[in-house]
Write a structure and sequence with these properties.
The chain is an alpha/beta fold. It is built from 9 helices and 6 strands; from the N terminus they run H-E-H-H-E-H-E-H-E-H-H-H-E-E-H. A 6-stranded parallel beta sheet has the order 3-4-2-1-5-6, sandwiched between helices.
């Protein structure tokens, strides 16, 4: 092992040692961005090589979250906007996502997967495979892992309102009655992530500093960490830096 690797290992060890267990976020959202740009930066002819490398990193990231005690992770893998990509790129990307989710659902894994997003917008075969993989993980004792595929924040809120209206209509509630009792909790009860804590920390890689609608409703009080590294280059030390930055912030839940 060379000197740079020794120094890197020592730095990573110190970051991990200095983490305050009481300041670990319960729920981490991840925008794993930059796969295509990483592939292009290396002169790779197929941008799907970047998506494959990015998919390989997901299991590592979840292991890092396990190591520090994160309880819920939301991974944004494919937005509703991405579904309008050229089919020659979209089809291979969907295959990569299918293989990734199948791997995360294998028996030796301990995570409980939940598919979040408008699965009805996906090809039927893809939606069926993703749902089946998630069903195989029900009852596992590890972290809850939300897989956001065909996800858009505005779409999620629209779906939540639609589900809420349908629920009340089935119980005979009139529009006037609903207008009287409606509050934010009624909508929150129908979000894709219902029953889970809102994200404490949202990480986005690749240098982009915007949310692009990710967890639009749930992230109102989240802390954000933007990392310049493309997702395939994201390291454990980058994750630990994000946790350090989160722990150093004074969270304000009202302004």
């Amino acid at each position: 092992m060379g000197l740079p690797n020794l120094l890197y290992g020592a730095y990573e060890w110190r970051l991990r040692r200095d983490l305050d267990a009481a300041a670990i976020p319960r729920h981490v959202g991840l925008m794993a961005d930059g796969n295509r740009r990483w592939a292009r930066s290396l002169g790779l002819g197929d941008v799907n090589d970047g998506h494959r490398r990015g998919a390989d990193k997901i299991g590592q990231f979840l292991g890092w979250c396990d190591d520090v005690g994160v309880e819920v992770v939301t991974l944004w893998l494919l937005s509703t906007d991405n579904l309008s990509r050229d089919p020659t790129e979209l089809r291979p990307l969907l295959r990569i996502i299918e293989e990734l989710v199948d791997d995360l659902a294998q028996p030796h894994r301990n995570w409980q997967l939940r598919m979040v997003g408008a699965l009805d917008l996906l090809p039927l075969e893809t939606a069926t495979l993703l749902k089946s993989a998630a069903e195989r993980t029900v009852g596992r004792a590890g972290a809850d892992v939300n897989i956001a595929v065909g996800y858009g924040g505005r779409r999620e809120i629209a779906d939540a309102v639609r589900a809420m209206l349908s629920d009340h209509a089935s119980r005979g509630t009139t529009i006037e009655e609903l207008a009287e009792l409606l509050d934010v909790d009624h909508i929150a009860e129908h979000l894709y992530t219902k029953g889970q804590p809102d994200p404490d920390l949202v990480i986005r890689t690749s240098g982009e500093q915007r949310l692009s609608g990710f967890l639009l409703w749930q992230s109102v009080h989240s802390e954000f960490y933007f990392c310049d590294a493309y997702w395939p280059e994201f390291r454990r030390v980058d994750f630990l830096r994000a946790l350090r930055a989160y722990a150093a912030r004074h969270r304000r839940f009202g302004g």
